[in-house]
Amino acid sequence: MRAIAAAAATVGLLALPACGDDGGDGTVTVLAAASLTDAFTELARDFEEAHDGTTVELSFGPSSGLANSIVEGAPAGVFASASPTAMDVVVEAGEVDGSPADFAQNRLAIALPQGNPGDVRTLEDLARDDLLVGLCAPDVPCGEVAARVLEDAGVDPATDTEEADVRALLTKVAAGELDVGLVYETDVAAAGGDVEGIALSPDAPAGTRYPIAVLDGASDPGAAEDFVDLVRSEEGQRVLRDLGFRAP
Amino acid sequence: MTGDRRQRPPVALLVPAALGAAFVVLPLVGLLQRAPWGDLVDELTAPVVRDALALSLVTSIAATAVSLVLGVPLAWVLARVSFPGRALVRGAVTLPMVLPPVVGGAALLFALGRRGLVGSWLDDAFGVQLPFTTAGVVVANTFVAMPFLVVSVEGALRAGDRRYEDAAATLGAGRWAVLTRVTLPLVRPSLVAGALLCWARALGEFGATITFAGNLPGRTQTMPLAVFLALERDRGAAIALSLVLVAVSLTVLVLLRDRWLRV
Question: Which runs of consecutive H residues, i.e. helices, occur in chain A?
Answer without folding.
Answer: 2-15, 37-50, 63-71, 84-92, 141-153, 166-174, 185-190, 221-232, 234-242
